[in-house]
């Protein structure tokens, strides 16, 4: 007789979560392509365009820690679908305003802030709920799938669809996004519920402080959070004026701009599909460090792109590297942080990691205005390189010695 072992599989609840993400992110991709195109119709000033991007990410700085505490004390499924429903309403308002030609930069900034606030709750809850429905041995695969569907929707399917719809009627891509949020919310309502943690009656300030203390004492995750903060600042510093670099410097049309984003997404899709195999074969440390080093050189090269083809290839390579190190670090958090603290630690981590994005957006607008549209990406690449040199000894020491496996 021969013994057979059943390989663990991802649950049906996980796949419902994955399908909800896939539906939502197609609409988000259309929205991401349409917003800068809409902003360009209002103003060509890179400083004003950067304000809309900054407003989208400002909630990560202001609301992340509070959202993390909320995610640990309330039903995460309810928070997921309610956040999506709220975002559906916000984007529907954008669609109506575009249809009646009542859009301005201040209005876009306010609505972008509201959309970002919903994304803070949704993003932290989604990362925190995954260990509840996925075995630890499958987290790399599950996170890779999540990044793949996110990338396919936000960067591969959504952007060309959004740019094409925008050329037909400005309100169409925003209507599509509102509908995708509503469908995603309906699907998320079917996920299994989870009882609130014992901290549900703990004062909110005490709950937040517990998450802060836990992350502050974990040297590896603390270093990765700070490094993420610099990297996302630099990502937005360069990326906030990408639409101007593509349409003004390289003379792409609105439709071609959407295709450029889709081409760049191919690398992210590949990273999501192969990350688990690469980590299993080479280890988390080589995958993480290689991806971080690659991002530095790619950013410098993006600013020097002579044409749209070279720019598209570099964006694809950047997507591959970014997805690789993102999956590794997200999986580490889910493996190391106690379940009852995961929402709060994720909230603090995302506040540190994403809180500087608004400043990066504003800085990118000023750099582009003062030094030209090509300057932001090389500057961002240099800053990423310096930050990596500082953080690398901590990352190597922690992962190589195995301390990453001990909270």
Strand and helix map with partners:
Blueprint: H1 12-42, H2 46-73, H3 76-99, H4 105-133, H5 139-168, H6 172-188, H7 204-217, H8 219-239, H9 242-249, H10 254-282, H11 284-302, H12 308-336, H13 342-354, H14 357-371, H15 376-401
Helix pairs in contact: 1-4, 1-5, 1-6, 2-4, 2-7, 2-13, 2-14, 3-4, 3-6, 4-13, 5-10, 5-12, 7-13, 8-13, 8-14, 8-15, 10-11, 10-12, 11-12, 11-15
Subunit arrangement of the protein = single chain
Through-space gap between termini:
42 Å
* Beta-strand residue percentage: under 5%
- Architecture (CATH level 2) name: Up-down Bundle
Estimated helix fraction: over 70%
What is the name of the CATH superfamily? Answer: MFS general substrate transporter like domains
Main structural class? mainly alpha
Number of distinct helices = 15
Q: CATH topology, anyone?
A: Growth Hormone, Chain: A
Radius of gyration: 20 Å
Largest sheet geometry: none
Number of strands: 0
Tell me the number of structural domains.
1
The level 1 CATH classification is: Mainly Alpha
H-E string: HHHHHHHHHHHHHHH
Mean pLDDT: 82
User: Which stretches are poorly predicted, pLDDT < 50 over at least 5 residues?
Assistant: 1-5, 403-407
Spatial shape: globular
């Amino acid at each position: 007789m021969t013994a057979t072992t059943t390989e663990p599989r991802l649950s049906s609840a996980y796949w419902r979560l994955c399908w909800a993400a896939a539906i939502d992110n197609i609409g988000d991709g259309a929205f991401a392509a349409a917003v800068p195109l809409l902003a360009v119709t209002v103003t060509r000033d890179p400083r004003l365009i950067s304000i809309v991007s900054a407003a989208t990410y400002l909630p990560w700085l202001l609301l992340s820690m509070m959202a993390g505490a909320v995610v640990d004390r309330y039903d995460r499924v309810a928070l997921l679908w309610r956040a999506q429903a709220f975002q559906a309403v916000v984007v529907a308002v954008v669609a109506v305003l575009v249809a009646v030609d009542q859009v301005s930069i201040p209005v876009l900034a306010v609505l972008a802030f509201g959309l970002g606030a919903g994304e803070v709750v949704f993003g932290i809850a989604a990362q925190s709920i995954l260990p509840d429905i996925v075995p630890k041995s499958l987290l790399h695969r599950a996170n890779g799938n999540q990044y793949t569907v996110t990338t396919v929707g936000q960067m591969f399917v959504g952007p060309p669809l959004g740019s094409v719809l925008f050329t037909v009627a400005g309100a169409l891509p925003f209507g599509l996004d509102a509908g995708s949020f509503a469908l995603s919310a309906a699907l998320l309502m079917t996920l299994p519920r989870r009882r609130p943690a014992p901290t549900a009656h703990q004062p909110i300030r005490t709950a937040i402080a517990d998450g802060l203390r836990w992350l502050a004492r974990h040297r590896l995750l603390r270093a990765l959070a700070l490094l993420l903060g610099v990297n996302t600042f630099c990502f937005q510093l360069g990326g906030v004026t990408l639409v101007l670099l593509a349409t003004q410097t390289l003379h792409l049309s609105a439709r071609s701009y959407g295709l450029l984003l889709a081409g760049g997404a191919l690398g992210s899709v590949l990273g999501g599909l192969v990350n688990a195999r690469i980590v299993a074969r080479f280890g988390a440390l080589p995958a993480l460090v290689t991806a971080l080093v690659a991002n530095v050189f790619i950013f410098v090269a993006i600013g020097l792109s002579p044409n749209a083809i070279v720019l598209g290839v570099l964006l694809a390579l950047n997507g591959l590297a970014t997805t690789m190190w993102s999956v590794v670090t997200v999986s580490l958090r889910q493996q190391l942080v106690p379940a009852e603290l995961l929402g709060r630690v994720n909230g603090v981590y995302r506040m540190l990691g994403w809180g500087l994005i608004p400043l990066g957006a504003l800085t990118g607008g000023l750099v582009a205005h003062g030094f030209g549209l090509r300057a932001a990406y090389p500057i961002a690449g240099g800053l990423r390189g310096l930050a990596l040199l500082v953080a690398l000894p901590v990352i190597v020491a922690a992962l190589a010695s195995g301390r990453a496996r001990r909270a």
